[in-house]
Every structure is written in structure tokens, then in C-alpha cells.
Structure prediction request, 222 residues.
Amino acid sequence: MLLRVKLTDDFYLGPGKADLLELIAETGSIGAAGKRMEMSYKRAWSLVQVMNAAFPAPLVETTRGGSGQGGAVVTPLGQKVLTHYRTMQRKTEAAIADDITALLVDMSGKK
Amino acid sequence: MLLRVKLTDDFYLGPGKADLLELIAETGSIGAAGKRMEMSYKRAWSLVQVMNAAFPAPLVETTRGGSGQGGAVVTPLGQKVLTHYRTMQRKTEAAIADDITALLVDMSGKK
Prediction:
């Protein structure tokens, strides 16, 4: 089940942004997170910029480590947004379960 | 809100197929329905084939009129599938309304 939610005319929250947030939290890196999704660094960075611009405070903050390699953290606001998305997925799955069952019965041809 | 439901490994039901069914029922023509969606006849026809193949009976039946121009009707099974999709959309909207409200508050920066 794929759920994409339109929050403003030009900001949608869907599985791509949610997975990216989750993987940034896990890996501490935008590049590593993007790589896991087979997404270019440019694309991952661009999605982070879009998310950060949509909220009054960033969802992902970048830092520069001593070695010059940047890290990234998901802020509490970012975690909150991610949690809302996962909650919406769970609620949607529960809400549509009966219709999916009925459709699968229709597809199987059984009464 | 965009909802796409995976029913089998290679059959998804989403807004495109649902809107196409609805417009075929309305216009009585696959071509006219596709045109309203700015979709080529080939693409609309292909989506109908995919839908018909996924169920044990067709969701859309085509007929040839006296003038040689083909018409199309959505079968009772097709109407049932469309109704399930619209019902899932409504249920999803209701299920996620509180999370969307919370996200919009976060986006506005207000407490």
C-alpha cells in the first residue's frame, strides 16, 4: 500500500521522504541513506532541502566532522514527521483491510 | 491524498485505474475516458487490459456499434471494484485526518 499525502500545493509526504528520513536517522548520513535507496546523493540532498523548506525548522541537520566528512541527524521535528507518516500508514492499512479482502475474493473468483 | 493498493505482485489499484473506470462508465468509451485524463488511447486500452486480466471476469466490456464505432461499458464487477477504491479513499482520509492536522500545525510553526 502506497500512501502519498498532499500537505500543501507543492509539498507531498510519501514513502520516499519517509524512508529517507528513517535511513538518515539510521546511518547518520544523507549519502549513505540515499545509497540504500539506490538514489543519487543529489536526489537525496534535494529531498532533504524540500523537506527542510516545508517546515519552520529543519527535519534534517547536517554537520561537518573533524575529517571534513559531513554527517546528518534527524531532528526531533523530523522524527515527529516520520512518526506521523508511519502512523498514517498503519491507520490506512487497518482502515482498508476489509475492502482489500473483498477485492482479493473478487480476484480469486470465489464467492 | 494518493492511495495505491498492491493486490498481487503485479497488480496495483490506484487513482489512475479508478478514474479511468469512472470515466468509461460516464462516457461509454475507452478513448473518450482516456482523452479526459490526457492519456493516449493505447495507454487507456492497456490499463483496461491489465484490469480485465487481473479478475476472473472483465471490469470493462467493449462493444461494436452499428456504425463500426466501439463502445465500452463498466460491468457490475467493474463498478464493485471502483466502489471499493472510492470507499478505501474515504476511509483513508478519515483515518489520517488527525495526523494531517498535526502535520499542518507543525508546518505552520504554531504550537
Notes: The mean pLDDT of chain A is 94. The interface with chain B takes residues 1-8, 11-14, 54-57, 77, 80-81, 84, 87-88, 91-92, 94-96, 99-100, 102-104, 106-109 of chain A (CB under 8 Å). Chain A is about 60% helix and 20% strand.
